[in-house]
Amino acid sequence: EIVLTQSPATLSLSPGERATLSCRASQSIDSYLAWYQQKPGQAPRLLIYDASNRATGIPARFSGSGSGTDFTLTISSLEPEDFAVYFCQQRSNWLTFGGGTKVELK
Amino acid sequence: QLQLLESGPGLVKPSETLSLTCTVSGGSIISDNDYWGWIRQPPGKGLEYIGTIYYSGMTFYNPSLKSRVTISVDTSKNQFSLKLTSVTAADTAIYYCAKSLMPYSRPYFDSWGQGTLVTVSS
Q: Do the beta carbons of residue B38 and residue B48 sit within 8 Å?
């Protein structure tokens, strides 16, 4: 099973700041990685797929990068609605999710 | 607009079978481009993939749950279902149904139901 490790567990930032979230895979997953946003009481929302492709309707301030084992989700300038939990997911070898990073208001 | 809605008992006794149904509206479950999946999330924790199904009935299960899981499809009702046997407290979670972004058996999911909380307790 491929383990995805997300860091940091919590990121405390202010609106307008840049957020950089990390997802590391236990073995190479090429570019088969997605990022999701989840707000309290809601289902996850797909943001990025295949490491760097924005899903339909996702604002340009969200971007993804990386390949192999190291991946990054960047939110260029945090909006109030971006404070949430973010999960990564791989589909290279079966399907697993990371433990999540919470982006909280500083 | 495609919508998915989970339904089923919110409370299941230990050792019994958890049964949930996902009803798809605003689109057909018979689609060459879609797989349909179940994902769960223990309260306050991370996400766990359970399995996916194609409208033909072809299924793919998480190996860690495979011995207890059955996913089926009813195209006449535009629904797919989950059965999880021999449940324990560790199966307490919010259960989501979802649609694949692309026609892969192990996909990314771009449409999700609202989720339903299932508690395992006597």
A: no
| Polymer length of chain A | 106
Neighbours of A45 (CB within 10 A): 18
Angstrom distance (rounded) from CA B117 to CA B96 = 9
Question: Do the Cβ atoms of A97 and B49 come within 8 Å?
Answer: yes
Q: What is the mean pLDDT of each run of 10 residues along chain A (106 residues)?
A: 96 98 98 97 97 97 98 98 98 96 97
Question: Cα–Cα distance between B19 and B115 in angstroms, integer?
Answer: 14
Angle in degrees, CA A106, A99, A79, rounded to 5: 35
Which residue is listed with tokens 């207890």? Answer: B68
The answer to whether the CB atoms of B108 and A96 lie below 8 A apart is: no
Distance (Å, whole) CA B4 – CA B20 = 13
Report yes or no: A97 at the B interface, CB cutoff 8 Å: yes
DSSP letters of B74-103? Answer: ETTTTEEEEEE-S--GGG-EEEEEEEESSS
Taking only the tens place, the pLDDT of each residue in B4-37 is 999 999 999 999 999 999 999 999 999 999 999 9
